[in-house]
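Study this:
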Amino acid sequence: MNTAVRTPFFQAVLFDCDGVLVDSEPITNGVLREMLAEGGWTLSEDECMRLFVGKAIKEEAATIAAHSRITVDDAWLKSFRQRRDERLLEQVQLMPGAMDAVQSAHRHTGGRVACASGADRPKVMMQLQRCGLMPWIESNHVFSGHDLLRTKPAPDVYLAAAAALGLPPKLCLVIEDTPTGVTAGMAAGATVWALRNAATTDQALLAAGATRLFDHMQDLPAMWAQGLGAPVS
């Protein structure tokens, strides 16, 4: 009797954006640290990353208010996003290996590739365009948790991405880098692989439900052969 476990056949790949496709987290958190310091809360880079990576700033309003003079209202969020976007437009770059990973996923799935982010859509679109990824990710396959009833860790953004590709989530592979995002992908019913990073631990990613961890985006093309079917002609 053959007891070997067969590798799942994934028909679509749903990528998170920040920290997965684009190296934006240090830039965004640099701006956040500046604005928190202006409001009286001084954090190190590591502390800021640990507290806020993968989370919507408006959802952390109570924490920020408890440690600073800041009220996270519409005016403050508008100022933060404007300063953040200006900095990202100047500095954001692809994560190493992300272009090859997206192109390879596009080839293997016959174009069934989406980006599902917890960030606001204008930021996501600007970064994908700035980094040259739009030829492989159609604009109507880019989703933001801000546009839905709930953002990550709720599954809404991944459910929307799978529906747009015409597939049940169980046939989708999610690529994430935070426990919040992994939780969202798992709650949607997808399989989730997680990119290791300095802001979280392997234990946290695995506890959230990631079934595989990997070290670099450039590792993914070789992994597709194990997790995806033959290239779609």
